[in-house]
Every structure is written in C-alpha cells, then in structure tokens.
Specification:
With 225 residues, the chain is of the alpha+beta class. 38% of the residues lie in helices and 22% in strands. It has a seven-stranded antiparallel beta sheet. Helix 1 runs parallel beside helix 4. The longest helix has 22 residues. The N terminus is likely disordered.
Amino acid sequence: MGPRMTGFLKRSLVLLLAGWLAACGAGQAPAPPPPADAGPKDRTIWVVSNGWHTEIALDRVDLKASRAAPPEIEDLPEARYLSFSWGDRAYFKERNQSLGAVIEAAITPTPAVLHLVGLDGPPPEAYAHLAVYELSITEAGLERLVAAMSAAFTRDGEARAQPVAPGLMTRSFFYDARGEFHLFNTCNTWTARMLRTAGVDISPAGVMTASHVTGRLADLAEEGS
C-alpha cells in the first residue's frame, strides 16, 4: 500500500472516530461567551491549517511587547513571526506515523508537546500553500492569548523550557507541554481554546478536526461581512 493511501486511511479512521464521538457528545452544554474587550481590534494573529492540524502565528513584535512573552521564543532569535501549536508527544514528533500510533493518540490520553516554528515572512507568505486565516483582536485579547500559550509550556520550575526534539520545520522545536492529548482534546481543540481566550467568538466545544476550526472561522467571516 502506497504512502498516500496509508495516510488517507489514517485520516479517514480518525475522522470516523471523531464524527462518531462528536455525535455522542452533541448534547454538551455550550461554552460561555468569550471575553468582551473595549478598544480597537488593532492586533493581528493568523490561524494556519494544513487540513489536518491547526496552529496560531503571531508577530514577534507583539510577542515581545507582551508582559507574558514566552522566553522560549529566544530559541529562534532571527524569526520575525512565530507559530505555536500543541499535540500528542509521540505522534506529533514522528514524521512517519503508524496506524497504531494514530489510534492510540486518538483514543488514549497521552502527554503533549508544543511545536514552536520560526517564520521568515508573514504567515500568508510563509504558508502560501496552506489555508491561512487572518484575525483582528484587541490588545487585551492578545495579552491573554500570549499568557495562555506561554502557560502551556512545561518548565518544571525553570525560567525557560528546553527543547525536547527538533521540530518538523527547518527552524522549529518541540517542548513538553501541559495537558493530555485525546480525541476530545486535540491540537484543534487547543487552537479553538486559545482563540476564545483571545476574545474570538469560536467555541472549543466539539472541536476535534481542523475543519471544525476553519468552518467556524469561515462562519465568523460571513457574519462580519
């Protein structure tokens, strides 16, 4: 079986599980409304999706201006933009995942990692081949977002977390992260939760796949049009 077919079967299996379990949890209570901030939405962030995984990218200038700036960004000192995402430690770090790893990552709660990527240019240019959504948030929303992402690093009492492995991109690293990955708490759930912390009107409830995130972002764009 070729690698493309294997990848398709992996994704199909997890999506099938996601759909089945999402149906089981369809009656869960809605999330409370996101924080409502006064002031202009003059800060820009980006959500990037490869159709399977989502991440959040920020301008280094905004990150550095935050009181909660994660010290780990200094591991990529030349990057003007930085992208953050969260996922299963064993599955995320492997470039060639087995079908068993996919199932285990989906069903069994497992330790998590953060993936920090340094980008040379704005995310729409750096990820020109992917879906990129530009969002405007307030300064207060940005501060909450940066604080939440910084708090996701596991530092074990140290001032700065150390990389546990090279990342998947040329300039990127993995770090141990707080929380456990499972089908009800995926990389995409984490993205939605971070966005809601920033004041974006997107609920993490029921979010498992990248399409759950991008579909809700598309709805926001339509509502604002």
